[in-house]
Amino acid sequence: MILSATPKWSAPALRPYLPKDLAILLRIVRASIEQLASEDYSENQIKAWIEAFDDEPAFAKRLESGLTLVATLEGLPAGFIALKGKDQIDLLFVAPGVARRGVATTLVDAIEKLAQARGVSALHVEASDCAVPLFSVRGYEPQRRSSVSLGDEWLANTSMTKTLGASPAPLH
Ligand SMILES: CC(C)(COP(=O)(O)OP(=O)(O)OC[C@H]1O[C@@H](n2cnc3c(N)ncnc32)[C@H](O)[C@@H]1OP(=O)(O)O)[C@@H](O)C(=O)NCCC(=O)NCCS
Questions:
Q1: CA 134–ligand 1 middle distance (angstroms)
Q2: From atom 1 of ligand 1, which residue's Cα is the shortest distance away?
Q3: pLDDT tens track for 6-42
Q4: What is the pLDDT of residues 138-160, one digit of tens each?
Q5: What's the CA-to-centroid distance between 78 and ligand 1, angstroms?
Q6: What class, spelled out in words, does domain 13-119 have in CATH?
Q7: Ligand 1, atom 25, residue with closest C-alpha
């Protein structure tokens, strides 16, 4: 089961990814692409994007190889973010039932703070068309439009970058 809208709203909690999350995160990926990205991409592009996650071991490796944070609401995963290397946001997905409630904002904010604390000077993302408004609001600057090949389809995205401030001096 993935989260659906609840009248009661509480702020998401964050925790690191655990291998037991794999199945639910995959369900979040498929549901969010299907329901949240369908205004920006064609039916065939949506299908190709979802199919790109059919290789579960490869998806698990992507989640495990970098820093992955899971946002939970009422104890259930509501979305997640994965960082590739030190400075590339690789994955960001939110369950459609709790979209526009700040789950992605909480995740991106946390990853920015962690990156900044590790001395990273800028974060990069290949933002899907439905994620561009979110990253723009958070101060990411568009660099260029590009396309990614998935199956027989090409999906457009926008390379965006945010310069992070200097890491705060340690407290004494
Ligand atoms: C993009 C996505 C992660 C946003 O998640 P979210 O939790 O709904 O985002 P938030 O609630 O934190 O949104 C914060 C702000 O970003 C902007 N925003 C987010 N989604 C938006 C949309 N679909 N249209 C316009 N603005 C949007 C708004 O300014 C929003 O603030 P508001 O709700 O007060 O107006 C989610 O829609 C998703 O999973 N999409 C499908 C997968 C995807 O494209 N992932 C990104 C890969 S780079």
A1: 5
A2: 131
A3: 555 689 999 999 999 999 999 999 999 999 999 999 9
A4: 999 999 999 999 999 999 999 99
A5: 13
A6: alpha beta
A7: 133
Please give the sequence-ordered ranges of beta strands (E in DSSP) within the chain, or none if there are none. 13-16, 67-73, 76-84, 88-94, 122-128, 141-150, 153-163
**Ligand 1 center from residue 171 Cα (angstroms):** 34
- Indicate the domain borders of the chain: 13-119
| Residue 2 confidence (pLDDT) above 90 | no
Please state, in angstroms and rounded to a whole number, the distance separating the CA atoms of residues 155 and 73. 31
**pLDDT of res. 114:** 96
* Ligand 1 geometric centre to CA of 65 (Å): 25
- Closest atom of ligand 1 to 89 CA is 48
- Per the DSSP assignment, residues forming a β-bridge with 123 are 162
Task: For residues 63-78, give the mean pLDDT.
Answer: 96
Report which ligand 1 atom has the smallest distance to the Cα of 93. 39
Nearest partner of 77 among 91, 97, 60, judged by Cα: 97
CA-nearest residue, atom 35 of ligand 1: 100
